[in-house]
Design goal:
The protein is of the alpha/beta class. The chain has helices at about 45-60, 80-100, 110-120, 165-170, 195-205, and strands at about 5, 10-15, 30-35, 60-65, 105-110, 125-130, 150-155, 180-185. An eight-stranded mixed beta sheet has the order 1-2-4-3-5-6-7-8, sandwiched between helices. The N and C termini lie far apart (about 35 Å).
């Protein structure tokens, strides 16, 4: 069942789940998971977001999902991106309060992945990143300081918001360990191979 927290323009709807099973010592205890574009039907219940959450939860990592402003029970309206980054910061602060002093994971799909990376890159509490469907062909280049923190990118070979080649170029510019997994035959929403997203994330996190 969802609840709300205080956000920059009013309540933010959240959904928090504890991790399942044993968590490996090298993994942070919790992750923030950001959903796709709010103006195009994106919510925290998106299918890809759910599959990402399953991969994290099965690895023993607690997951906090939230709805951006104007989505579901979250107050406000689409702001063009800047306000949504404030929402990410508010949700990250809440998650950090649930796990005081602990390192955190930043994860997301599409719009949520891009903006989650940008916000997380500025926050030392975030120690690793998981990005699915990163829209590298849609947004202008943006400097993101990895400072040695690892990144997993999961991408559909037929993604129309960024080609595998564009993603590879982005990942090569990431100043830290990075893994890029391209799912052959999958589109931006990983159809018809959606179930693979969970396994890719779980397999990646299982490795030290």
């Amino acid at each position: 069942m969802s609840s709300t927290i205080a956000g920059p323009v009013g309540p933010l709807e959240i959904l928090y789940r504890p991790g399942e099973g044993e968590r490996a010592p090298h993994l942070p205890p919790a992750a923030l998971l950001c959903h796709p574009h709010p103006a195009h039907g994106g919510t925290m219940h998106n299918k890809v977001v759910y599959r990402l959450a399953r991969g994290l939860l099965q690895s023993g990592i607690a997951v906090l999902r939230f709805n951006f402003r104007g989505v579901g029970l979250s107050a406000g309206a689409w702001s063009g991106g800047a306000g949504e980054r404030e929402d990410i910061r508010a949700a990250l602060d809440h998650l950090a309060g649930l796990h005081p002093g602990a390192p955190l994971v930043m994860a997301g799909f599409s719009f949520g992945a891009w903006n989650g990376l940008a916000v997380g890159a500025e926050d030392p509490r975030v120690v690793r990143f998981v990005a699915a469907g990163l829209p590298v062909g849609t947004y202008p280049p943006e400097r993101m300081e990895a400072r040695g923190r690892p990144l997993l990118c999961v991408h559909g070979a037929l993604d129309t918001f960024g080609t595998p080649a564009q993603l590879a170029a982005f990942a090569e510019g990431w100043d830290g360990p990075h893994e890029v997994v391209v799912v052959e035959g999958a589109d931006h929403f990983f159809e018809p191979h959606l179930a693979r997203v969970t396994q890719i994330v779980a397999d990646h996190l299982a490795r030290p």
